[in-house]
Amino acid sequence: MKYGHFDDERREYVITNPQTPWPWINYLGNEDFFGLVSNSAGGYAFYKDAKFRRLNRYRYNNVPMDNGGRYFYIKDEDTIWSPGWKPCKTELDKYECRHGMSYTQIAGAKNGIEAETLFFIPLKTWAEIHKVRLSNTTSEVKKIKLFSFMEWCLWNAEDDQNNLQRNLSTGEVEVKGSTIYHKTEYKERRNHYAFYNVNAPIDGYDTDRESFLGLYNEFSAPQAVLDGKPTNSEAHGWSPIASHYIEVELQPGESKDYIFTLGYIENPEEEKWESKNVINKKPAEAIMERFNTVEKVEAALADLRSYWDNLLGKFMLDSNDDKLNRMVNIWNQYQCMVTFNMSRSASFFEVGIGRGMGFRDSNQDLIGFVHQVPERARERIIDIASTQFPDGGCYHQYQPLTKRGNDAIGGGFNDDPMWLILGVVSYIKESGDFSILDEMVPFDNDMSLAKSLYDHLTISFNHVVNNLGPNGLPLIGRADWNDCLNLNCFSTNPNESFQTTENNTEGSKAESVMIAGLFVVYGQEYVKLSRRIGNDAEADRAQAEVDKMVAAVKARGWDGEWFLRAYDFYGNKVGSDENEEGKIFIESQGWCTMAGIGKEEGMCEKSLNSVKERLDSDYGIVLNNPAFTKYVIEYGEISTYPAGYKENAGIFCHNNPWIMIGETEIGRGEEAWEYYKKICPAYLEDISELHKTEPYVYAQMIAGKDAYKPGEAKNSWLTGTASWNFYAVTQYILGIQPDYDGLKIEPCIPADWKGFTVKRQFRGAEYTIKVINEAGVNKGIASLTVDGKEIDGNVVPIFESGTYEIVVTMG
Ligand code: GLC
Ligand code: GLC
């Protein structure tokens, strides 16, 4: 069953039934100021950090689902309704939500009144625009009452829910004209306030929640709306809100537009006040002024559209498959930008409080985003590397507002340093900017400890080399990429998190075959990079370490039909046929086949065949098999999840592309493509009621074959799945790979594809790459021409400007 459809022309997903199986959301904002908005206008806005600078309250895990947002109520005689269906939930005559590239439009109609709302954040602006157009489609004059409503969050979203004994006394507002200002704590340590304005005279307002809503009313039936008049309340403590009230008279056929602006202001210390306790509103008024007419708002929206035209113009696919085109050209790239911006902080599954920018997550997010705005990727790399420790280890996350690392979600994950190499080489290959390697980058944000970024890479590489276990394989530390394979934890206390509890690495023999594969892949990249910059001695040294690792995996990391996953604390095998449960895991199959370990000996092919046989399912490849059915104390969190969910045999979509890439390494185009389609949201639209999450973005996890309800997805939007799938499909299936010396072309596709065309902007030039597969092969290039002239090999050179026609004939 479907709840809407794609409109590719406008790059929108159009929801026509508001009762989606889960709120289907979108993101507003591209830099610094962001908003989340659901298909019924739920969600919130924040400045840089969803924990420390949240503008409005949203109630996670609430009943009914999706409470809090930018709500509008229309009172038309005795009928009260909302254009987004919620919160009133009055049945609408018409409902349509269009989620587009950084904007959302929600339209509702009832009894001859149409209300169209448009939500977006103009470029380089710390404010959300909510444009409301009310139209009278009847032949009579209509008099209706419009109420806006949102509830202020007292800035720190965590404290806002916890510290009620203080917070219920701190709230402060000011009202001036049609603007409600939220200034809680502004007179002490804060230099920021927020405002909610409308560009028209108002007929009243409320700023106190209880006065507007009534203490025991639901959001669906605020007392002021029921009464048809606001109370002009002034909040002192309790829960400050912002609600405007406007009496609207519409002639037959008439429309009126109202522009609401929800903004965030920071004032320098000396300019905080206009007079005693009266905030300096000048900067807020300047923002309102910029968007106080429909023309200005439309111009800002047009700018936003051309911003996205430009970004999405960097990689454009024309294939025979609409679903593939829309994922590659629109939604997957869009999700990559969102994950780049949010890391794992704020979604409808991540509450914006606990998880900041992850070290490993942010490096991986880069690979799906770097072609869009390489300069921002550069800045991100420096921020991430600045939190590294001098020995190469890492804080697992940093807070975006302060850019300081913290161990709130643990530390000591021994895969972390390797991902920095991935981030950096991806950036250089895209941009050609080797100068980043010379940047002086601090350790633990301490500039007195700074070394060059290249030194950070060396130290990252060495972190693995310096932490090998008894089999010559990398020690796992707290865990590797799989946060839930906690081989050094032994937790018996349900009150502690596996991620932050004691990490008993003392005397541990726990080694990771996944990190071994990762090390071979990015160790080789480090070798290549070192040679490129003329550091041959270092390249030779590093190559020798990589070779040793390859040998160690072949000797001690192979189980006969697949790669082992790990050795546990005691040195016992994990992910072996000898084990009763968890005999085979996906991660080491992915990384060791991507690394090509034992390819000549047939290990890669065997490993991938085992994946197909044991891990593949109707909805994707599960993480491990058989699922754990009992708690294994020496494995930790992985065995706490019910079978088929999350890291215990769920389809953890992030790692499926590792197998796709592995398949392309051995030339199996059909398999890679089948795996791609299985988890790709656009192909799952018809089963939306099962899949549950948005059909336009990837989810982190789909319940696996051992689950109660296989195929049901969770944790959409913020997942490494976005970047890895984009990377796998564009660089390994379509096979367009940015490299130091040009664009390397190496498609691996189903044999019955006749070909496809990609337009790719790269290092200042535009390449139109036409791939022809009349020969019906999976992989292999017979010839490659640039503007009609055949070239040797499969790397299209860097031209720096101009447009070029590339024809690739497979065979
Ligand atoms: C989550 C984490 C990521 C981790 C993955 C597997 O997605 O954000 O860092 O690698 O789970 O445990
Ligand atoms: C839990 C989740 C995992 C996540 C980790 C860190 O272990 O299962 O996906 O990466 O928490 O927050």
UniProtKB/TrEMBL annotation:
SMART domains: CBM_X. One of its GO terms (molecular function) is transferase activity. CDD domains: GH94N_CBP_like. Residues 11-291 form the Glycosyl hydrolase 94 supersandwich domain. Keywords: Glycosyltransferase, Transferase. It holds the Pfam family GH94_b-supersand. This is Glycosyl transferase. It comes from Carboxylicivirga marina. The lineage of its organism: Bacteria, Pseudomonadati, Bacteroidota, Bacteroidia, Marinilabiliales.
